[in-house]
Amino acid sequence: QIKFDNKKTNYEHNVALAWKLNKSFTPYVEVGNVAVRNNTDERQTRYRVGLQYHF
Q1: With contact defined as beta carbons under 8 Å apart, do 54 and 42 qualify?
Q2: Which of 33, 36, 35, 31 is nearest to 50 (CA)?
Q3: What is the pTM of this model?
Q4: Residue 16 and residue 23 in contact, taking contact as beta carbons nearer than 8 Å
Q5: Which of 22, 24, 27, 51 is the most buried (most CB within 10 A)?
Q6: Has residue 5 been placed in a domain?
Q7: Residue 31 lies in a domain
Q8: CA 39: distance to chain centroid?
Q9: Dihedral (C-alpha) 16, 17, 21, 22: value to the nearest 10 degrees?
Q10: Coil, helix or strand for 9?
Q11: Going by C-beta distance under 8 Å and a sequence separation of 6 or more, which residues neighbour residue 22?
């Protein structure tokens, strides 16, 4: 099964930024480039925004 560039391999890029507000909360943003399907070379940009809680 061809995945990327006529080869059977694939890749994923992610860049994340997080900053600690206090002992409990860490907000973050992430941008990634992922495959759309396993059998094509189509790519899609993924955006994530979140809040991590530490206890």
Answers
A1: no
A2: 31
A3: 0.71
A4: no
A5: 27
A6: no
A7: yes
A8: 19
A9: 50
A10: coil
A11: none
10 Å CB burial of residue 26 (0-12, 13-18, 19+) is middle
Task: Provide the pairing of β-strand 25-35 with 13-18.
Answer: antiparallel
Q: Which domain holds residue 46?
A: 13-53
Amino acid at 11: Y
pLDDT, tens digit, 9 for 90 and up, residues 2-50: 666 667 777 889 999 999 999 999 999 999 998 887 777 788 999 999 9
C-alpha distances out from residue 34 to 17, 26, 45, Å:
18, 25, 6
Q: Could you give the number of structural domains in the chain?
A: 1
45: tokens are 């940009």
Rounded alpha-carbon distances, angstroms, from residue 22 to 16, 26, 51: 19, 7, 12
Residue 3 domain-assigned? no
Residue 4 belongs to a domain:
no
